[in-house]
Design goal:
The protein is an alpha+beta fold and 389 residues long. It has two domains: 174 residues, FAD/NAD(P)-binding domain (3-Layer(bba) Sandwich), CATH 3.50.50; 147 residues, 2-Layer Sandwich (D-Amino Acid Oxidase, Chain A, domain 2), CATH 3.30.9.10. Helix content is 26%, strand content 28%. It is built from nine helices and 20 strands. The longest helix has 17 residues. The chain is globular. It binds flavin-adenine dinucleotide. Flavin-adenine dinucleotide binds next to strand 10, strand 14 and strand 18.
Length: 389
Amino acid sequence: MGGFEHILIIGGGVGGALAHDLALRGYRVTLVEKGELLSGTTGRHHGLLHSGARYVLHDPEAARECWQENQILRRIAPQAIEPNGGLFVALDERDQSFYGRFVDRCRSIGIPAQPLSGAQAIRMEPALNPTLQGAVLVPDAGMDAWRLPMHFFATARANGAEIRNFTEVTALRMTGRTVAGVDVLDHRTQGIASIGADLVVNAAGPWSGRVAAMAGVRIPLQLGPGVMVSVRGRLTQRVINRLQPAGEGDILVPQRGLSILGTTAWLADDPDAVAVPPDHVQRLFELGRTLVPEVGRLKPLAVWSACRPLLRSQAAADPYRISRSFDCFDHAPRDGVEGLITLIGGKATTLRAMAEKAADLVDRKTGRSIACRTRETMLLPYRCFWRRA
Ligand SMILES: Cc1cc2nc3c(=O)[nH]c(=O)nc-3n(C[C@H](O)[C@H](O)[C@H](O)COP(=O)(O)OP(=O)(O)OC[C@H]3O[C@@H](n4cnc5c(N)ncnc54)[C@H](O)[C@@H]3O)c2cc1C
């Protein structure tokens, strides 16, 4: 098969980092985003660059992906990362029962995991609950949720990608069973236009089910929203997680002079109707203060929700247990629709790996074989996005 030259990507979030990989491989790339770039889930997450440790107990594939990408992103986008480390803290007997397995699994994946006594952990982070029984130091880090993907967009644009915000795809242009481009609405001018493309990549995150439906296909997408709360003050220097399989209210991420408490998770159907259930804020404070007692004396500074575009699995109905891994579908063999790929799932931490997987699929469809170069290509500073070419 040949002739695929112009690749159109729908979605300016984590999935849109594909523009960088494809531009490096020499494709002509257009990315369209219906709102501001990163206005979906990506601009609103905790900003935790996962080491993978959060997933070692129940989602080893996601743990491996996160650890690999954590190391790569530190190299290619150091300006977006605060390499402050993270502590997993065991507060009670139940947490302690996971301790040995947690350290073993981290080490089997290659994640450095340094066991600490409760007293050592308190010396490192005096605000932690003084009753804690033990902790493990891992290479979690803080990331700037917005700047990290902007580094990818800046580099993609410098390499020729066209990135158009406020441009919503309203329909896929079909020629028989082939997607031949998109119809778009420009929200700034109210103008409508068509953009032809040899291949369309659906990277619309929580809205990717709607985009797939425009071609009459269904994808295994499960929406899993969550609530986060920020409080004034940097309560800890490191990222804090509770030492247990990932669950409710067990993360605290310092971001500059603030601390972010996260998160809850539930299942939803409509990405445009994700409100903040009032009791979630109270639960985050209750659980947050078991990690860091001072949380109990603070008031919320900001409260918000974001919607995870999860890869639905038959095995897990619990939103905490649905894998945080990702996949990429070619709708030609799967659904008989040519010219359309969907990329879903993953984490902000794994944006580069998601792009590599999708770009490899684009290569297979074009009959090309171009080596991925994003592992070693330093990204431009995010500010370059607004610089004249
Ligand atoms: C509560 C919570 C906390 C999280 N914390 C972390 C964390 O700390 N660390 C981490 O690594 N990950 C975290 N994640 C996961 C991460 O945020 C998501 O996996 C990731 O942001 C999803 O990116 P996406 O590109 O798939 O979706 P999005 O960011 O939503 O991007 C999709 C884009 O497509 C656009 N779009 C939709 N329809 C159209 C259309 N018709 N035309 C044009 N554009 C369209 C949308 O406007 C949107 O901008 C968290 C997620 C949640 C929910």
